[in-house]
Every structure is written in structure tokens, then in C-alpha cells.
Amino acid sequence: MSEQTHSEPVVVYITAPGEEEAAGLARALVEAKLAACVNMVSKVRSIYSWKGRIEDDREHLMIVKTQRHLFDRLAEKVREMHSYDVPEIIALPIVEGSPDYLKWLQESTDLKHHEGGNQ
Questions:
Q1: Is domain 3-113 in CATH 3.20.20.140, yes or no?
Q2: Engineering a disulfide at 22: which of 9, 16, 70, 83 sits with its beta carbon 3.0 to 4.6 angstroms away?
């Protein structure tokens, strides 16, 4: 796999019902090197259909910067910790970005240094 393919950057959106749950998820993802950074946007209003009803709730949105090849692990970690039956976990490609920022993103999610590599 080429370095470019291996390090394809993505942004993942995750919502949570409360700030503490969102912060716990964010910290766990960064500590596990599954995310380089998580921005938290407080009190977004979400209107959605759930079990035949239209819901209107306040949620907290996490904007997660990571690499595409980490998505499955990231999603598994979120599902383990999340209080929702079906949490929002969606990835969008980053089509352009500051080279320095994208390099930092890649280095910050380098699992080789986290999982028994050069720590």
C-alpha cells in the first residue's frame, strides 16, 4: 500500500447526547491514536426520524480527524463506549489540506508508535 493510500485523511462526524459522553469518547479516541484531534461542538440541534417518530434533540457533535484505514477500529471503539443503540459514525474525505497539518494528522495516528513500536 502506498503512503498516500495508507494515510488518506478523513473527517468523522459522531454525535452524543451529552458533553461528558462526547468528551470521554474524544479522549479515548485520541489516547488510542485512532484520532489526531477531536473538535467538540456543543448543543447542536438534531431533527431525525427514529422508530417511527420525528425526534428533536440537543446533541454534541464531534468532528474527528483521522485516517481512513483506522475507521473500522474507531467505529468499534465508539460503539463499545456510546450510549446510543445506533450512534452516528460517518466519514467524509479530506480532499485538500495544509501539508503540515496533514503530516501532523498522519504522525499523530501512527499506530506503529503506539502498539509496541518505537515509544
A1: no
A2: 16
